Protein 1
Amino acid sequence: MSEHNHPDMPDDYSPEGLAQIHPLAKPFLFLGKEKVKRGFIWFPVVGLIIVSAMGFFFPPKHPAPWDFGFSWAVIGFVAYTIVVLSAEPLFKMLARDETYYGEGEAPKLVNKGDHYE
Amino acid sequence: MSDLLNMFTLGNFNPGFIIILAGILCALIPTHQIRKALVLLAPIAGGVLIAQQFTSAEIIGGIWQVGPLKLTTLRIDSLSMIWGYIFCLAGVHNAIFGFHERCKITDSSALIYMGAAIAAVFAGDLITLFVFWELTAISSVLLIWKGGEGSFQAGIRYLAYHVTSGVLLLAGAVIYGMSKGGDYSFGFIGLDAPGAWLIMLGMGIKVGFPFLHNWIQDSYPKASITGTVILSVFTTKLALYALARGFPGTELLIYVGAVMTCFPVFFAVIENDLRKVLAYSLNNQLGFMVCGIGIGSQLAMNGVAGQVVAHVIFKSLLFMSMGAVMHRVGTAKASELGGLFRSMPITAIFCLIGAGSIAAFPLLAGFVTKSMIITSAIDHAAYGGGTAMWVVVMMLLFASAGVMEHSGIKVPHFTFFAHDGGHRVKEAPWNMLVAMGLAAALCIFIALPFKGFGYGTLYSLLPYDVEYKPYTTDHVVFQLQLLFAAMFAFAFLKRRGVYPDERKAEILDFDWTHRKLGTDVSHWFGAMWTRLSANIDNVKASAFGFSGKRLSRIFSPAGAFSAASPSGLAALLTSVMLALAMLIIFITGQ
């Protein structure tokens, strides 16, 4: 077991763990590491800095009244944040038990060994 | 009769008919392989037939005179052609994706459903449109019911929505046709025409207007794995075509579309079932296209047609990837998935391509189509649209970031990355991988930055000449700003622990009004009626019992009148009754 695996699963890099991993996925196992997940933020940060700077040199050809060098970056961040922050109050307001409508789960899939039907 | 025979000659044959016939034939074929070959070949034959028939700007054929009605069963022009082609292409994808499934009903209903959608797209009049409009509903409900026991009620609700939609369409068509002296031909209608509101409402149900949208999120996630992929293609896109044909440039649609883009974003973020998330995402994407139809300029209509093509491809791809996950893991619930890139890396890559396409990343499908709609909205606002139109533009940008949240990040993240769900399964079956691979390749191909190839191929199919260039530096830069900012917000909020965990729940939407409130109210009325009936029965019983007893006491053999009474009393009673009778006759003057 490791910090990035399911408690019932062997470590990705152990022989038992590796035996259960798809061969094509083995070079990308680093994606499951907590450090990599936390470090992912630097990818959009760097990208954002570059394209925001470029926005001043390549202004939009069809500008809206609010447009400036990195206006779409601001819109993207604010819009995304609003959506995510609205999740908790909305969940409290709208979430009910899964059996609320009393219709049962669908589709009910049957385990056929290596797949479900 | 000669009209009817004429309809079935090659030049007059609606390509949808061939697929419907294949579907009927499919129901009779017991051999799996032959049936699957038919499911694959029928849409190819349909596509070839469209190419054979579409030799000039507008082909009209298959005229059938039924009494006073003149039906035009074939009309191919630059608008219907693109819908016809993409439906045939989707049919091929679906056939490959569902190759493993040994189900006669799925094969047959999928073909009839697809054929009906194609036949409706090529319908030249409103009555023919109505017939195939209803056939899409009736044939597709079987795909939902194949989802199992729990999907039965969802299927019934689906039918109720779609039959209502058809009835409204027919009612509107009759009013509209009568006002035109019996001409039912399907062209521009506009909201001022008699019956137009009914027609638009009928189309609005099928396209998922706000408050009429719930059938999508209710039924699609409850269908079978293959069924959901098939369903995601045809019904809503057929309705979009009908709106694009009948109501281009209708201002109301701009605002309806803008609302459609935004509200699903808030539901998608809290939904646990990823197929339901994709169903909300479908609603959101349809909003962009409805908005484009409302704007109605050549750029906007090209954007709508292009987005339909791109959307069918990338949305199928996303539904297919979730279907593949369900096939192996048995669930599409975000709370039970995670870490699947270890077991299903190829599916993960295809899903990421679909997610990137819907989020409109440069070099992927949505980038070259959605931007046409947003640019046309900005142009419309800048040239006389006013403040309201700028609000619409802002809503479209907001929704673009929202798409990045639910389809661009949430679906692939919670399925293939996030916490390890502990599933070590096989990669998707070969047929699913081929279907997803084809869709992923198309997502890349139609966005390749070459005018004579790549996006140029897609643009050459659009209804109007295209001057729009998607790969300008400012467009790439500003689109990347939006997407990188959304990714940064995701990573930042996740690190801060603000991003919500996925939790099992039933999320209430507007369908609560009929699924819960409506049901409870009808149960209440039912209970009240039962109690009222019981009370009325009691009152009746006691009233009849009382008077019966009284009468019995007087007139029965043991009653007062049968008792031996003095002749004087009998004479008195007779006199009183005679006097009463005379009094009544005197008063009434008889």
Protein 2
Amino acid sequence: MKYKPSLPEDNDNVSHDQPVREFVLLFSGITIFLLLVFWILGLFVDRAVDYISPEMEAMMFSSVGASASELEDGSDPRQAELQNMVDALQECTHLAYPLKVHLVDSDDANAMALPGGRIFVLNGLLDNVMSENGLSFVLAHELAHFKNRDHLRGMGRGIVFSTVAALMTGAGSNLTQLFTPTVGFSQAQYSQERESLADQQALQILGCYYGHVGGATEFFEAMKPDDKKRGNVLAHYFASHPEAVQRINNLHEMASTLNLAIGEVRPLPAILDAQE
Amino acid sequence: MEQLIIFAILLSLGYFFGRHAEKRHYKSILKREKHLVQLPTSASKYLLDDGRRIKRAHLVNGSMVVSVDYFKRILASLRNIFGGNVQSYETLIDRARREAVLRMKESCPGADQVINLRLETSSITKGRGKQIGSVEVLAYGTAVYFYK
């Protein structure tokens, strides 16, 4: 046998397809699939939330919450004042919901509606509102979240979405990062929708309580400069709340459609005034 | 958001550097294969031409450890969801196999034949697959030298 050396002309062991094309195809396929799955699962979460009564909710979350050190002492007179305001506003929501206000020491200006009927008011909020009406609007906004059960919907979605993403890719793998935007986008879009709804209802609560909606945009006016810091075109799509400017415009629009007048605002209760 | 940017940077770094390295490696493989094709190599345990007297014979081996780039790893894990050909790993294994054989041949200059060629592959990242994805391919055989 004579050895005749030669090399194969083609390499049949490797494919010559475009890897970028494959990547785009697989990635967009799975993203569309996930968006669809999230949408359907979101509907299931909404269904489940309908079955949870406020009492049941209070029971479920009674043991969960921020640690005692994060909360200001319960004897803080400011907290009692906030509680009174919430109780008074609640009469306008036609909703009996056991609510408890907590004042949290923080420089951030925010308020949160948390499962278990808790409203967290961050200290910084009090520096950013000028009047009682302005503060009432923020509290009414949180009340509207409770009325719509947005805190439960949001949490339910969070749990379900991250579970699905982790199940598909294996928790903590590189792929999970790839789907984070999809999860974030799904949640942000939904959240922005709910925030706008809560704004609208808060406006109605304010109108019911004061007879006018003066001061409703106060907090957003104060928050406007913060939006500029985001500065990113894409960030808007992933933000949980609509931009302050947009919310102010929406509120003005809603006020005129609902024929709600803008009247004189009341000063902040002395005890809540930061200048004191 | 920052996480996403870092991820995109890693992905494109992986893609461009990986592609560059692969191209360069294939170029070198083709060149050396052309040169070394003159050394007959077979998987048989018998000599290809047994008319001549053997002067000496010894074990030769060559191995290569090759790692996959970030882009390919992500592409492969996407592929894991759908199933099918993991094309992004094909070149990786192909390069390692050919490089190992080449190194083995280069380790016995002057040999007349290499017989009994065997290839072995081992993953050196077992259990830590998420951090690194690399394989070693080992080629070994018997180099035979004849009396001239």
